[in-house]
């Protein structure tokens, strides 16, 4: 188990629904110092989108506040770097490298972080690997990013291939991902998703109240836990419900 190390990681926004990104870094933060960098954008924001504008406001506030200790996670601080939100612009990437190198160096000094590892859960961070002064590089792959409908699949594939090549080690959360990424880095290993046992086990406790809107449903009851996005087979879910 990794101990007494310093880690900077690129990931989604900490405040979003928790995923393996959050769980992995909370575990590592028990015995290491972790600086979590909120999303650096996988696409250019739309100023006509209310959700995008709200996200920009949250990011500006987080940048002004600086790194904040994450509640319930010893050794873990979250920070939103102020970068130009144009991940496919070479000029923006060049400028962002300088911004990130300066801001991460400043906050590492504040947190007492010296030699550090650089981790990423997102392929768009490839542009910063090898430019922030890290001593070790890790890519933790949780999805086939090129298949998301809102990204340029070919560009993301190229970025991920390069990221795997730059990293010392790659972890994947499924055997399908393992087979795909190992072709780009022989030091690719399977780290299957687990389950937050304490969270889900509460459903079986006598003290847990079943909500009224599901308490009277006919058995059997099938549950789904996860994001409902365009990659979910809604027709299949509907067919199962009809049966």
Portion of residues in helices? 25-40%
Which residues sit in consecutive blocks of at least 5 with pLDDT less than 50?
none
The spatial strand order of the largest sheet comes to 3-4-2-1-5-6-7-8
Largest sheet, in brief, is: 8 strands, mixed
Strand residue percentage: 5-15%
Overall pLDDT level: 86
Quickly count the helices.
8
Cα gyration radius (Å): 20 Å
| SSE ordering | EHEHEEHEEHEHEHHH
What's the short version?
The chain has 243 residues and is α/β, with parallel strands linked by helices. It is 36% helix and 14% strand. It contains eight helices and eight strands; from the N terminus they run E-H-E-H-E-E-H-E-E-H-E-H-E-H-H-H.
List the helices and strands and how they pair.
Blueprint: E1 6-10, H1 20-28, E2 33-37, H2 50-65, E3 68-69, E4 76-79, H3 90-111, E5 117-120, E6 136-141, H4 153-166, E7 169-172, H5 175-182, E8 188-190, H6 197-201, H7 212-215, H8 234-242
Parallel strand pairs: 1-2, 1-5, 2-4, 5-6, 6-7, 7-8
Antiparallel strand pairs: 3-4
Descriptive key words:
alpha/beta, globular, about 240 residues, eight-stranded mixed beta sheet, about 35% helix
Structure overview:
By secondary structure, the protein is of the alpha/beta class. 36% of the residues lie in helices and 14% in strands. It has 8 helices and 8 strands; from the N terminus they run βαβαββαββαβαβααα. Strands 3-4-2-1-5-6-7-8 form an 8-stranded mixed β-sheet. Strand 1, helix 1 and strand 2 (33-37) form a beta-alpha-beta unit. The radius of gyration is 20 Å and the shape is globular. The mean pLDDT is 86.
